[in-house]
Structures
1.
Amino acid sequence: MPKKDSCCVHASDLRDFTIDAGFSTPVFTVYTVPAGKIFVVCSWTNYTAQTEAWLRRSGTRVTYTHVPQINSYDHKTYPCGIAFRAGDTLEIEGGGRHSLHGYEVDA
């Protein structure tokens, strides 16, 4: 298989996660970045009404979402992305239903 063009994200690099973390676990691990890779979060949607949640990188809070009312959601877009290095864990603190979208490339 020919080597991918290193300038652009390829469709095979895209990652989508749909998480139903519930509320019994205060921190839910979504993904651990494999060796030799970098994962970049481009957007995050919190669908759980009247909740607050944090996106964490291996225990460190990096961004926040809040859904203030019923029948609502909060969508965040990160134009430059939030990078996670090999071995980092992508975690949701706060429970609920979420979608994360991003891409993974060679480090």
Note: The first strand starts at residue 14 and ends at 20.
2.
Amino acid sequence: MNHSGEQDSLAAIHLALYDLNAAAENHAQILQTAYAIYLAWCQPARLLYPQKWLYPAAARHFFVAVSEITCSIADVMNSICQRNQSFGNCFEGLSCAQFIKLVISQIPSETAA
């Protein structure tokens, strides 16, 4: 994928997170979450074994531990629930990988990954 295509895809992911009213303690959490979503969007097979194929790839990109990626995703998930009280316990029992699938489903299909 060319660099501008990657930027367009990441912009679409950020917009989907924004539409869900996502926030985080720091900007790095949003970036790490968006990048993990991007990797899964480009290669959906990564979601089959996220602990092996998805989270480590995102962690390598940011030079952090795998646990930091999953914590960032969980924090973003929690922020969405806290900022959208009408959702209730919207992501209770949802794994990080399931959340990623949910966000991907919110991205317009005409946006190519």
Note: The two ends are 8 Å apart (CA to CA).
